[in-house]
Amino acid sequence: MSTQTLDSLCTINPEALGAATPMDMEFRYLDISAVTKGRIDWSATQLWKYADAPSRARRRLHSGDILLCTVRPGLQAHARICQEEDTSLVGSTGFAVLRPNLAGDSGFVFHQIFGDLVAAQLRALETGSSYPAVNEDDVRRVRVFCPKKEERWRIAAVLDKVDEAIAKTEAVIAKLRQGRAGMLHDLLTRGLHQNGQLRDPIAHPEQFQDSPLGCIPREWTVRTCQSLCREIVVGIVVKPAQYYVEEGVPVLRSANVREDGIQLSDLVFISSESNIQLSKSMLHTDDVVMVRTGYPGTTCVVPRHLDGANCVDLIISRPGSEIAPRFLALWINSTFGKDQVLRVQGGLAQQHFNVGEMKTLLVAKPQPDEQKAIVEQIDALDSDIQAATAEQAKLIVLKSGLMTDLLTGRVRVPETIPIG
């Protein structure tokens, strides 16, 4: 396998601000905190004058430059500058700036610094335990697989294409989530006519009423969770580690509860005997569970396959016949539910919500048929989001495999692949 050092492919840290820099020079400063695995959050950058800028603002940047983060490199806060800014751009000295000797190598070098080969070398070169970093001389010696330039550029073209597809999918997911948030707000304030259309408070104000929760449809009633649920209890509150076993009955914790459902990774287990002993917090299909400590308010419905599971420190609400479990979860996860949680707990500083407070949480309750129609509309949007998220996950797996193959020479890119 033919390899070369980064120093042979690039000029390292080619330009820096120094004593000759005018004090009134204005530039946009790119710090490590604005970069996450190849993505630059430009909204997190600021304009500075040299006289007032942070002392780490020293690396001059141009389009095509690659930023290799030398501070905690395992986090891979690396990036590529893809376009010129209207103002000068300066990066932190926490980056090593790699300026390819051939402009066409920019994409190839960018993808290589995310590859396993480079990551392993950076790990070996790190110094310091609490604040691991690599120095400029070590960066120069990092080696990468390096075929002829035409193949390098074909490799970059393939990986760029996958990155483009991932970015497009991310944009679709973001748009769907934004649409869902807007639709959920409308559904929980305007509801649906029997014909399935949103009520119009401007055209038909007589169809609405004032309530402790604001303006809601006249047909709705405001109820407490206690009046809508058969029971509201808290999961295991004793230190549960004494009950844990390798296999047995699943136990849900705060980390397992997401608005889009139960996350099954990192489950713990208790024995069947312990589950009977701790039967008060045993879960059943359609129970509604809420996170009560840390960042309380996140809520979801217990699915059928977790009937009989148990939980630690979660609030369990068992809805009665007047409220659909999924509607109750949607309400609590909405701004109308979470605002009440934040007010009761006194803000995020307290980070605690108890059963008594849950019982007094107010819900604007439509009739059962309207609850069902609202849930169906949101579930349809959630299905679209899940499909797009699954597509994104497949693309990420595809890219990982391609990087392993193409950036090591295990698989060669045919000349028929177009460049650019």
Structure, described:
The chain is an alpha+beta fold. It has eleven helices and 26 strands. The chain has helices spanning 6-9, 106-112, 116-125, 136-141, 149-190, 225-228, 272-277, 325-333, 335-345, 355-360, 368-406; strands at residues 3-5, 10-12, 26-30, 35-36, 39-40, 46-49, 57-61, 66-69, 79-80, 88-92, 95-100, 143-145, 208-211, 214-217, 221-224, 229-234, 244-245, 249-252, 257-258, 261-262, 268-270, 288-291, 299-301, 310-311, 314-319, 362-365. Strands 2-11-8-9 form a four-stranded antiparallel β-sheet. A four-stranded mixed β-sheet has the order 6-3-10-7, with no helix packed on it. α2 packs across α5 and α5 (149-190) packs antiparallel against α11 (368-406). 33% of the residues are buried.
How is the topology of this model organized?
Elements: E1 3-5, H1 6-9, E2 10-12, E3 26-30, E4 35-36, E5 39-40, E6 46-49, E7 57-61, E8 66-69, E9 79-80, E10 88-92, E11 95-100, H2 106-112, H3 116-125, H4 136-141, E12 143-145, H5 149-190, E13 208-211, E14 214-217, E15 221-224, H6 225-228, E16 229-234, E17 244-245, E18 249-252, E19 257-258, E20 261-262, E21 268-270, H7 272-277, E22 288-291, E23 299-301, E24 310-311, E25 314-319, H8 325-333, H9 335-345, H10 355-360, E26 362-365, H11 368-406
Helix pairs in contact: 2-5, 5-11
